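histidine kinase
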Amino acid sequence: MLNSLSGRFLILTTIFVMLAEVLIFVPSVARFREDYLLDRLERAQIASLALLADDMIAPELEAELLANAEVFNVVLRRDNVRELVLSSPMPSEIADTFDLRDPSAFILIRDALVRLADSQNRIIRVIGAPSREAGELIEVTMESLPLRAAMIDYGLRILVLSAVISVVTAFLLFLAVRVLLVKPIKGVVGHMQAYALAPEDARRVIKPSASVRELREAEEALQALQTQLTQSLRQKERLAQLGGAVARVSHDLRNILTSAQLFTDRIEMSEDPAVQRLAPKLVNSITRAVSLCESTLAFGKAEEPSPVLTLFNLANLANEVLEAERLAIGEAEVSLSEDVPANLVMRGDPEQIYRILSNLVRNARQAIVATGKPGEICLSARAEDSAWVITVSDTGPGLPPKAREHLFQPFQGGSRKGGAGLGLAIVAELVRGHGGTLRLLSSDGEGTVFEIRLPMGDAG
């Protein structure tokens, strides 16, 4: 109960209402004290009028008038003459004097709190203005203990009434909160739990129905999120099925194309001019198809193996990558250069680093060759305080906007017509396996620059 929203709201409402009543309680008690004393002054004035009407009254009647007014003495000032109208023996001297003719709210509240705190029975003097202008001043003496008892009784009644009002108000608000807030929120939670059991089932997507604007906005946002998630799950499921099928087809197709590649070696030896003209194109097509199948199979693996970290010379590895690419350049006007210190030794998996650099350099070479213009590719590296930084830059045409938008996503980030977009996805996965990052620093009409940062230390 206390951990629920409605339960906490019930408790907080009760506390706040009681706090408001306490803030009202002190001025109320002060007002009650003022009314109590003014009532005693009015009673005393009425008793004095009886004496003024008949100067000769019996001592018993005088005592009865004072007892009815609950005072000891009554003093009237009329026509600038102060006169003791009624009097009786006082048990002790006057302890305090209170003037009610024009008191401030602060003085009334202060005197009320002092009287509540004082449990001694004292004789007090009260001064006020006579009602109906029956004189200039009226003054009485009385005991303070009956006043304190009346104030405590009034205060207790106020507190009990406040408690009842607080409980009733809190209970009504409790019911309102349960109906207007808690019930709709529980409905949303129930929809979320039901959706979590089968997020691919579109029937479980919430349908906004709340009448409260904020809750309806929350339901609409949840509906949009669930709809998007359901569509994403369906798309991923289809892609997973498609990936499995493509991997199987690519495996068999690679074997078939490998066999076809062997036959093309003999076709190239033919002396037929037409065959000699078409054979290189056939060889290139088959080679590209084999490469695509191998890339698909490589990405279709459950995951890349964890890198086997060893120390190796990066300059030697970079030379191997560039030499392999020089063989593939052929007659194209693409120059390769490196800027790697000869003594730069780094820690990583040499085979995976080779694949990383080979993919980036190959992509750059293919982009330049596709333009038919000369270009340059530069592979550079340096050691910083906490990381090895490798940069692959080219003077090619740059990546198109679609390729930059889905740069490291498989089957979506391809920049070359006929490409599968797997190269950069594989590179990004291998770099992450080393705990590093792969970033595209720039790509425009003047070329493209990729940066690889591999940390020197172990993961903290």
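thats it. Residues 213-299 form one domain. The chain has three domains: 5-168, 213-299, 310-455. bye
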